[in-house]
């Protein structure tokens, strides 16, 4: 099978390339980049020398459909919706890593993204591909979830689906590495600004909030708005979502642990930590794992969940490849058997 | 006035030296270190060459009292209580940076520190020196607050003292740099372990919890146990305490902001941030400031407070010097007019 | 084929495991660790959960020989020589990552390692496995080169073998990440010590100097002692060796470039950079590549070479796997098709 | 005395403010910034809240001369020469931190800076203010040396002035933190690019080379071009210049050490390290010190010098204040009694 990557020079695009180039079922048909079309990727990114010798091509939907069987759009929100048209019309498989096709409600999109929404029918048609929890893929248009949303939803799923928490008690205090801020050169991403620092940003305003809420409400209609704080910590990769919630009934530490253990037991990429153990960030970096630790504090009556992922893998390119595997019914781990780069 | 520092080679001791050596009202009489007695500090710490040429002395209470007017104990919890005896007997001024004299209840001390408690009468006698909020110093024994406790209490004081929050709703998600873990060489402080990582530790078990609770209950008897999470982020210095709480009445963003503005207006070392601004960690590092940002989310009904300090200054040596200034009625900023080292 | 790893919980051992677990020609028969025998590796290193479920075994040479075809000794210098005996006696294939079998002269070993030397006949028998330049493996005992030595020798080989430089003019200014200092908790590896710092250590005294000199003299008898400085920079992985030398004849930039281009053209893991381009450290991290940039300064008459590797891969585990591939005549890239983790 | 700072929002300008605000002999008359004129510095840089409440002013030479006694130009190379005119005409004291007035030869300026040169007579008139070695200040125009140049020249002065080295043997391998790259948001300064990385840049092309050569030739006419490599390491502050040279006569380790000890004995800001000790970067960061370690390798016949400074202090703002102190015959340490921020 042949695949193409659009937006191949962004962080997610580069990771997609890295994963797909070791995938036994696919071959990379082309790398597309509007900003660097015609340039040699090995000259642009010296680490790619002797690995990929092709040139970057300017976007061309027909050429992509003629030469490949599936396309990954690793393009920014706002761009994907502009270029996806010919693929959707042709019912050509698209895995989109932007936020453009994640929300069902066009008005919600417009509110949070400050852009005009994609066609409503496309939004209805798209599958929200939270890969570990989405066994069926009806559509050819897969919206890959956001990085913060993935960590948060995987951390909350057992609690919310089983209706264990007070619906207005959920707080997410999430931390991300700098690769989450993208490759634009901004004040926030300047080394001198980010190094030896931690900063809170977009408090209650992050664009991943609506997709989290949309999914939580699908799982449990009672859910109320959650408190959602996002921050930058001085690492390149990784997201840690620390989640607090109050149970809506009497529970024990042991019951909570068993809820998660049982729920995630057979899922290859989710690793519930032993009792009283919390994952650190690095134990998933470089891999497609989501590791989850949890505790119930009897004194305060508070549940605490810590969910960690690599934002570029499980939070972007890894989950996208997993979505492709599921869509084509390949082994879901193909191309993703990555041991974390712990040191 | 002459002062001595015991435990001068720990992180807090070194910072005390740095601050006191520019203080116009005091002279450093001696640096004491049991582990390095007899050694030259410039050889041990080359950055001190041409700054301090004296040798480190072995602890000797009588010598300290004979040569100085005040002693700083920058010794670990468990050590301070063992060596403080002669000073307390003699009513000699002690500023202790350990946790040994912070708690009033000996049983609480024994539970959280896993050590036998200091004499109960000493605990009663000690002043808990939360410097910005403690104008009167009745005792010669000042217990300098813990770093996490300082960031948390300064972040919560206006809310709790004015009884604005539901007493069982407080959550503190606190992050600290590695200097907070001390200078012991452990797995957790190994560069390869801490770098590019974030880890949660001592969840609901940190020994600063009881001093926070003790103070919150002094301010407001209704207070219930708080959820308190501590974590390490890969920076050398700094603590960010992110605090969540639910109001016990209808409030607005503006009222919340005014509460803090008014409360902290005249305090030299507390800087409430403009509306919708949160402090980043580095804007206080290298200084004695505590910067506080806040917001009220009308949709979730949640207050969020971000309080940042330099754990070695406002969270240790800086506050200790401020306590000395207040005790001796010097200008409280003397020795502490430090602009943050923002870059 | 089956392989065992002794010293599996050190940094090199963990990396060996990561590489070998994706190698199509081998199966891992056992992980051995004296310090952690009997422990579950997933509990010890949570990042290994769901990846390897076996327990760590105490060292047992007979068991290893009974269950595997080849053993990797990822043990410290001084330990390998103590445990290698039964394997060498049995002519059982050993790939040793320590410094114990790299030097031919026992006296040189004793001078630089401050330990009694292994048997002289073993030293004579061992192959110094500088993998990219060692096509023939006569011996069952392979001494994997040191990390600094690998970066330096690959950087110097074309110049020295072709006798282009003044034999007393070579200076190596090498920088290493902290993983090079090993997993011992020391003052030098404490985060607060290493972070935001750079330090020079073992100047002209590093134990990799004699293996570099031994190899340089094999290549060119005229070679004189080289100046060799080693330092730590605040990164986890990576070595950059900056090499200066004066040519012994008139050369041009173009000739120098062609010398390297031609020499390394067909070598899969060595990437000579385009003219006027120097590699940065990260462009090889996570891979088995050695990237080399070079320039000749006509004004000063000085050649400058920059050679970068991942110290744990090309400088340890990666090269060890490459040596195994060469020894068994597998494809030399098997298990090593790793794209650098550039971001 | 009153001083103004032009370019107050750059890294050097901010540091100048920090130093001068504690200087007992001066008062800050105004902060000037063309890019942020009219803005409040506390809003722009929250760390400055409650420290400086004035607004930033647009550049206005007459206003500066009317309100102050001395001006610091913390403006980029190419800008200083454009705005310095009225000050120079009026013989008003200028301390310029850019490269514009450091070189005597206009053609050299044009070659290295790729800009038209300042008036030749201004270049002749300017004092190159290598503060520790420049006791006499004839001119009102002081050119503050570059950061790399300062570390290199202080490291080499005793050797070159005493004619100890072969004039074509000097190699400087210098490393700098990211603040040296300035506050522009570029690919090189993006956190994801710089973190966990080290990169070589401007090899033999750095614009500090000509001022080093100019000074070395003043000290010793025989000096030939030096090899000068510059690189970025992932720290915010600090420069380490590692210098290699061959002696032109028989020397011993002891003689070399005594040469430096004697030369720098009385200089407050230069600290020659004890025998066999090299300074690490952090032991000067936050201070105006230059620490120098040295060794002579009898086997290779090579001298090695390691010189470390804080690039924003001794390499910029600190030396500028020292130059002001010397010019006005204040105590040269006033405003500069900063203990390094070692942790």
Automatic annotation (TrEMBL), chains A, B, C, D:
The cross-references to PANTHER family, in alphabetical order and at most eight, read: N-ACETYL-GAMMA-GLUTAMYL-PHOSPHATE REDUCTASE, CHLOROPLASTIC-RELATED, N-ACETYL-GAMMA-GLUTAMYL-PHOSPHATE REDUCTASE, CHLOROPLASTIC-RELATED-RELATED
Keyword tRNA-binding on this protein?
no
Q: Which gene encodes it?
A: argC
The record's listing under Gene3D superfamilies reads: Dihydrodipicolinate Reductase, domain 2, NAD(P)-binding Rossmann-like Domain
Query: Which terms does the UniProt entry file under GO BP?
Result: L-arginine biosynthetic process
Q: What does this protein do?
A: Catalyzes the NADPH-dependent reduction of N-acetyl-5-glutamyl phosphate to yield N-acetyl-L-glutamate 5-semialdehyde.
Which superkingdom heads the taxonomic lineage of this protein's source? Bacteria
Enzyme class per UniProt: oxidoreductase
Q: Which GO terms describe its cellular component?
A: cytoplasm
Q: Mind listing the GO molecular function terms for this protein?
A: N-acetyl-gamma-glutamyl-phosphate reductase activity; NAD binding; NADP+ binding
The pathway this protein participates in, as annotated, is: Amino-acid biosynthesis; L-arginine biosynthesis; N(2)-acetyl-L-ornithine from L-glutamate: step 3/4
Pfam name, any one: Semialdhyde_dhC_1
Q: What is the lineage of its organism?
A: Bacteria, Bacillati, Bacillota, Bacilli, Lactobacillales
Q: What is this protein called?
A: N-acetyl-gamma-glutamyl-phosphate reductase
The primary location reported for this protein is: cytoplasm
